[in-house]
Task: structure prediction
Amino acid sequence: MYECDYCDATFEAVSNLGGHVASAHRYGEYGCETCGETFTSLASYRGHLGGQTSIGRDELQTELRRFTKELGRPPTRDEMNADGAYSVTAYRNEFGSWCDAIRSIGHNPVQERRVRDEELLKAIRDLADELGRAPTAPEMDDQGAYSQRTCANRFGSWANAVLEAGFEPAGQPKIATSELLAEIDRLASRLGHPPTVKEMNSEGRYHVATYYDRFESWRQAKRRAGYGESHGKGDGWNRQAWGDTRWRRQRHRVLKRDDFCCQTPGCDVDQSEHRARCGTELHIHHITPRREFVDMDGRYDAEAANELDNLITLCAAHHRFWEQFAPLQPDIR
Result:
């Protein structure tokens, strides 16, 4: 059985878990390049595309002139995506670039300073620090230094932006492990059951991303707090059962093999950048989960679980994502 970390629903097949996470928790978003609308299922996205008609150059220019007249100047990319009838992507597809679309109606583009990724992530972290949890999209619009749309445009979706920024903010004193575990226990006592990811994010003192950074999985955090399949220091699932020194050596071999870089395609976060962003080293992910190496008598085969071929280097954000789909593995380089 496969369990969703977000709501504790269980599924017999990992494919069913993947579909559930994508639809129920918005890991999968499909964005229309013409109008900017997003959809959480591929079926609804395809239905939307099927009902569209092609937008002509004249229609795009008419809308751009209207919006320019309304503002008294050409709109920026963010303004067009937020309040225009068509997305910036539609203009890029027709004119080759946003700037060329502006020039086609006789205006010069507004000079825009491209905000660095780290500035956007810092804005999310700063607001999360004020709220005590990850901000919602409306909260980012109301209280953040940048709009949630700017973040979504940069990282592909608001959910992706939150994942990328879901670490302990730089400069904040490291929260003691005992405090993190005590917070799980406090919520469990109040709720009558171990908290889910959703419950921790909405009702807990710390965002669940903090637990992922410290324990590398939510289940491991709950087990360390005394909840889950096993308890205490005798927990046969944790890596200490293999020996701390031996695990550190194996961990280093994996990092070296992977060039000290996250192996998710398109992610170039290396060890130094990960330390700067998260205050921790890159994570080592078990492609086939360690629970699959526990036999019917409860014996854990650490040798097989920790084989090099079963380990891969990931950043914290992508580690959280791939744990939802284990034992499926990332389509690595």
